[in-house]
Write a structure and sequence with these properties.
Elements (H helix, E strand, L loop, with lengths): L1 H19 L11 E2 L1 E2 L9 H4 L5 E7 L6 H16 L3 E7 L5 E2 L2 E2 L10 H14 L5 E3 L15 H14 L4 E2 L3 E3 L4 H11 L6 E5 L1 H6 L3 H9 L2 E8 L4 E2 L7 H17 L9 E8 L11 E2 L11 H10 L5
Parallel strand pairs: 1-13, 2-3, 3-4, 4-7, 7-8, 9-10, 10-11, 11-13
Antiparallel strand pairs: 5-6, 12-14
Helix pairs in contact: 4-5, 5-6, 9-10
Length: about 325
C-alpha cells in the first residue's frame, strides 16, 4: 500500500512539473544565438554588451588579401572580436564590387576562383588568423549575386578544400538562400561534397518576413544533420516588397525565434534540427538604402527589434 501511495505521489509530481513548465517550443529549444555584422565597433557598444552574445558571424571576400584596405578591415574586425572574446564564424564570399544594380559583373576578377586559388587564399587566412575555427566556404551560394550560383559542384569543391585544410574546425557545408532552387542546389552539392557533411547553413529571410516555414522545412528535409540559420531576422526595408517599417521588423524578429523554436529539435518527418541562429545585422543603414535589417540605427541607437531580441536572447545565448 505504501509503495502504491509513493508511486501515485511521484506521478502527481511529474504531472505538476509538466503543467508548471513554460508552454511553447521555446521552453525546449536548444539552439545557440549569435549575430552577424561587418562593423567591429559593435563590440564596444553598451547595447551589444548587454546581450551577452558569445558568437558573431563575419563575411570575408575570398580574395581578402588583394586590396590593402580590405585586408585591414578583416584584421581590424577579427582583432576587436578577439579582444572581446567572441567566437567568430567566418563566411567567405564574392569579390567586393562585383554585384551591382541586380547584376553580377563579368569582369575577370569577379569570376569564381578555381579550387586551387581558393585553397591558396584559405590557407593564407588560416595562417594569419589561427584563432578562427568556424567557417562556411561560401556565402549564399545559390543566389545570382554569387559567381557559383549555377555551379553546386564548384561550391562543393570549396567545402572540400576547407575540410581538407582545417582539421578539427567547425564547417558549414553549404550556405544557401531559401529561394526556389535551393533543394536542387543542395542535392547536386551533396553529390560532390566529400565526407557526407552534416552541417548546413540557411538564410531564411523569406520565411521569417512572410511568417511562414516552407523554405525552412524544405531544407530540413533535403539535408541530414544540423541546420544553422546563418542569416535571418526581421527586415526593416527591402525594395518595394518591404517598405521601411521598424514595427514590422520587431514583429518578425519575434517570429524568427518562434520558427527556430519549432524546428530546433527532431520532429516527425524531419531529418535535421536547428542548432544555431545568426540574425543579420546589428548595424542598420541610412534611409533610402535597398536593404536594411539592423537592430540598431547607424549611430548605434536601438530600434524596436532590439528590445524584442534582448528580451529573448539572454537565456538562449548561454
Amino acid at each position: 500500500m505504501q509503495r502504491r501511495i509513493a508511486f501515485l505521489l511521484g506521478l502527481l509530481a511529474i504531472v505538476a512539473a509538466t503543467l508548471a513548465a513554460p508552454s511553447g517550443a521555446s521552453a525546449a529549444s536548444k539552439y545557440r544565438v549569435g549575430i552577424g555584422d561587418q562593423h567591429g565597433t559593435m563590440f564596444s557598444q553598451t547595447a551589444f554588451q548587454a546581450l551577452g552574445i558569445k558568437r558573431v558571424r563575419y563575411l570575408v571576400p575570398w580574395d581578402w588579401r588583394r586590396v590593402a584596405g580590405q585586408r585591414a578591415e578583416v584584421e581590424g574586425f577579427l582583432a576587436a572580436a578577439q579582444i572581446a572574446r567572441k567566437e567568430v564564424f567566418v563566411t567567405f564570399t564574392a569579390s567586393r564590387g562585383c554585384w551591382r544594380n541586380g547584376r553580377y559583373s563579368t569582369a575577370r576578377r569577379c569570376r569564381a576562383p578555381s579550387a586551387k586559388a581558393y585553397g591558396r587564399s584559405f590557407r593564407n587566412f588560416r595562417n594569419a588568423f589561427p584563432q578562427v575555427r568556424v567557417f562556411a566556404p561560401w556565402n549564399e551560394a545559390n543566389h545570382v549575386s554569387q559567381p557559383i550560383a549555377k555551379s553546386p559542384k564548384r561550391a562543393a569543391s570549396y567545402y572540400n578544400v576547407v575540410r581538407r585544410h582545417c582539421r578539427g574546425c567547425t564547417i558549414v557545408a553549404a550556405d544557401v538562400l531559401d529561394q526556389s532552387n535551393v533543394v536542387r542546389y543542395l542535392r547536386k552539392f551533396r553529390r560532390h561534397a566529400k565526407g557526407s557533411p552534416r552541417r548546413w547553413g540557411l538564410h531564411n529571410y523569406s520565411d521569417v518576413n512572410r511568417k511562414r516555414s516552407k523554405g525552412t522545412r524544405a531544407v530540413l528535409r533535403a539535408v541530414p544533420g544540423e541546420l544553422w540559420l546563418t542569416e535571418t531576422g526581421g527586415v526593416v526595408k527591402f525594395g518595394p516588397s518591404f517598405p521601411y517599417s521598424e514595427s514590422r521588423a520587431a514583429n518578425r524578429t519575434k517570429y524568427m525565434f518562434k520558427l527556430a523554436d519549432t524546428y530546433s529539435r527532431k520532429r516527425s518527418g524531419m531529418k535535421s534540427r536547428i542548432t544555431r541562429i545568426y540574425p543579420y545585422s546589428w548595424t542598420g543603414v541610412r534611409r533610402g538604402e535597398r536593404f536594411d535589417a539592423g537592430l540598431t540605427d547607424p549611430d548605434g541607437s536601438t530600434r524596436p527589434a532590439y528590445e524584442v531580441f534582448r528580451s529573448i536572447v539572454r537565456k538562449k545565448s548561454k
